[in-house]
Amino acid sequence: MEKPLVVVVMGVAGTGKTTLGPLVAERLGAPYAEGDDFHPAANIAKMSAGVPLDDADRWPWLDAIGRWAGQHAGRGGVVSCSALKRSYRDRLRAAAPGAVFLHLAGDRALIEGRMAARRGHFMPTALLDSQFATLQPLGDDEAGVAVDVSGTPEEITDRAVAALRRLGGEATAPPPPARPLLP
Question: Taking the model in full, what pTM does it have?
Fold first, then answer.
């Protein structure tokens, strides 16, 4: 890539942000930050209790992720963040204007099955409906790609990295249109 990308790995809970983010970062030779680590304890307690976060809960979390992403501009980095709404992505872009989004997307049944199988995570499957209801896919004017999460982590990583490489790493150029969901 011409310039190191700052990539925000986004999507609803259970799409594999925590699994795929480090794999993508490794393939790009970039540091990785786990978005859940930026949540204040009150947010984790709320989600653990099955209560969806509201925007007031999310703003400080998004600002912390945006600061990390902004600090990695020009050097590259990968950070996970659900970034479900356009307004959340706009807030992240305000702190890291060259950031691109890797939207991990998939069938609800597949994602629910993966969520049910994982252990020790604070996000219950009961919140999946609210995640899908909140999700606003990437707009045509947003820099990023959508990648299907079916298959193995390695297969998904291959598709994701190939799609990101096609973006060319031109973080200062006008954003390319969002890409269709890749098989």
Answer: 0.83
